[in-house]
Write a structure and sequence with these properties.
single chain, 223 residues, alpha/beta, Rossmann fold, 5-stranded parallel sheet, 5 strands
Length: 223
């Protein structure tokens, strides 16, 4: 099931790139730099995030991450993420891709598979199944996984107060997340590009630019 390299019919327009990894891995910085690089190349780029990206999805985000909602059941959490994703894909991602834009998204389906499928113990296949309607036959073309260990993630976040429910989870929870990302990367090598998040910002950005340039080159050559 975790072999999710498939290309749907709606994946023929635009370019959909997602960023995955532990908090503190540098996803946001690299997304901003990649956006600037691509815009300098003349591409129209839409930057977004999950959960969120639309008014409705942002409201769901606040509901999910509110630290006062300790009683939230794992399936409630998973279904809320899927609901936010459905609105996000329908309202933002699909329209941008139909306009042949490049969409850069901070987290997407892989986060649900890792956090709810493995971290919450719901099962990757079950979580994938409830997300299928939300995907609208659209998987990322490229996913960058920022490979950062839980230990390094906690070190980078040290001294920062936990802001939401997920940040308050025990370290063992994040060890499960990390191992699930490793599994997804191993099983989906055509889509998921592993980046060593311990490397310098310029080195990581160079790897991302080379990957995207190579992918666009293949699209333009018809290969």
């Amino acid at each position: 099931m975790t072999d999710i390299n498939g290309v749907g019919e709606n994946q023929k327009k635009g370019l959909f790139i997602t960023m995955e990894g532990m908090d503190g891995s540098g996803k946001t910085t690299q997304m901003q730099q990649l956006k600037q690089y691509l815009e300098h190349q003349g591409y129209k780029v839409h930057l977004t995030r999950e959960p969120g990206g639309t008014i409705i999805s942002e409201k769901i985000r606040n509901l999910i991450l509110d630290p006062e909602h300790e009683e939230m059941h794992p399936w409630t959490e998973a279904l809320l993420y899927a609901a936010a994703r459905a609105q996000h894909v329908a309202e933002v991602i699909q329209p941008a891709l139909q306009r042949e834009e490049i969409v850069l998204c901070d987290r997407f389906l892989d986060s649900s598979l890792a956090y709810q499928g493995v971290g919450r113990g719901l099962g990757m296949e079950e979580v994938f199944r409830i997300n299928q309607p939300a995907l609208m036959d659209r998987l990322p073309d490229i996913t960058f996984w920022f490979n950062l260990t839980p230990e390094e993630s906690f070190r980078r976040k040290s001294g920062r107060d936990p802001k939401d429910r997920l940040e308050q989870q025990h370290r063992s929870f994040y060890e499960k997340i990390y191992q699930s990302y490793r599994q997804l990367a191993e099983e989906n090598p055509q889509r998921i590009v592993t980046l060593d998040a311990s490397k310098s910002i310029p080195w990581i950005q160079k790897m991302m630019r080379c990957t995207v340039d190579r992918y666009i080159g293949k699209l333009e050559s018809g290969k």
